[in-house]
Amino acid sequence: MAEFIDADLSGSRFVRSDLSGVVMRAVEIQGADIDAPWLFDGDSFLRINGVDVIPLVEAELNRRFPGRAERRATDPDGLRTAWAALERTWAATLSRVEAMPPGTTDISVDGEWSFAETLRHLVMATDTWLRRAIQEVDQPYHPLGVPNAEYETDGHDMTVWATGQPSFAEVLEVRAGRVAMVRDFLATVTAGELTATRRNPWAPDYPETVLSCLHTILQEEWEHLRYAVRDLDRIR
């Protein structure tokens, strides 16, 4: 409930900050860069000069990333189609990276994860939501995976991620294995299995379904693909 009047916040950087419900009036926001991965969840809105821009942003991202619109599929065939589209988009991005100068995969832009670190995080995300949540594997994590924040290691053995700096070839190998795991799971999943109840990996008292876990995997994949492409555009 803070109030800023005639305040100069130009050049400020907010990371993992809650700005929901913020009201701005008579402000200068030219050049502002907002990245809100949960912008499309629920009944949220973001108005600029009285216009809700969320539908505009959603449509533009779907145009830029063909197949992204399928990430909320609710039946087995739709989920398989959604994952196949995602795989094609990642394959094209990997081909782009291969054509860039050596060392590109380890470059960090504005303190964000490098391309290699992004793939390592997606390994961890797959282990969390497929292996741990859906398949209920006791020891689901590959040591190469990278967690996002402290809450993603809370109550778990931190040494599982203490692997140093693997080569990009090693990252690609493990990442390809996790992509195949999701593909193989979706190949046989049934509509009935999608409704089965699972525990949220980070909040065990909060119920999930197999479908909601899969939606989280798809959300993680598309958001981190967007981040990766954004930063590759800066590197080139």
From TrEMBL:
Residues 85-227 form the DinB-like domain. Coiled coil: none annotated. SUPFAM superfamilies: DinB/YfiT-like putative metalloenzymes. It comes from Paractinoplanes bogorensis. Transmembrane segments: none annotated. It comes from the Bacteria. InterPro entries: 5peptide_repeat (IPR001646), DinB-like (IPR024775), DinB/YfiT-like (IPR034660). This is DinB family protein.
